[in-house]
Amino acid sequence: MKKIRVRFLLFVYEKTQKLYRTYFKKKKRQWQFTEKQLLEFREDSLGRKLGEFYKKHGFSMIPKMENHDVHHLITGCGTNFEDEIAMQYLLLGNGKINAHLLAAILLGTLLLPEYIKIYIKAYRKGRHMRAFHEWDFESLLWQDFQHLKDFIQQKETVVLH
Asked: In the prediction, which pLDDT does 159 show?
């Protein structure tokens, strides 16, 4: 039964993704890097980690959706459907709100209610993180990934003097 629900979610996602990019991301431009170029960044950088993420999962960059993939890295949310819904809850907790996010949460919760505890935990996690949902991660690709992740998760970073 879950397989049918997930297939339906995949169908809805495929039909709405282009509309989302057209109407919700119209002022945003696509990044000026390819997956291959990301792999050329310094080993511990956000850019390299993102390139490795694409390679590991066999994903391609979707224009204007690159920040979404960075959100996966920073939050530790996986890429299966229940994790995608959990990430939407996390982003809601982080302060992001738009019709697409709310629709994904509503539909995901209705179709995969067995993960509600995970969703609530993700929402709470997002509330305790620094607000990052509006950041331009393309300009941060050179930054040390772990330091960036720790900063967003409000962990203390070691400062060497």
From this structure: 59
CA distance 130 to 154: 7
Report the candidate in 35, 25, 26 with the shortest Cα–Cα distance to residue 60.
35
Angle CA 23–58–2, to nearest 5: 75
* 80-92 burial code (b ≥16 CB/10 A, e <16): ebbbbbbbbbbbb
Query: Looking at residue 22, what is its pLDDT?
Result: 73
The reported pLDDT for the residue numbered 14 is 76
CA distance 45 to 117: 33
Taking the C-alpha atoms of residue 10 and residue 16, their distance in angstroms, rounded to an integer, is 10
In this structure, what token pair is assigned to residue 40?
Answer: 């050329």
Tens-place pLDDT, residues 87-120:
999 999 999 998 889 999 999 999 999 999 999 9
pTM: 0.86
Q: Is 85 helix (H, G, I), strand (E, B) or coil?
A: helix
Which of 5, 10, 12, 14 minimizes the C-alpha distance to 112?
Answer: 5
How far is C-alpha 39 from the geometric centre of its chain's CA atoms?
A: 19
Amino acid letter at 30?
A: Q
CA separation for the pair 138, 150 (Å, rounded): 18
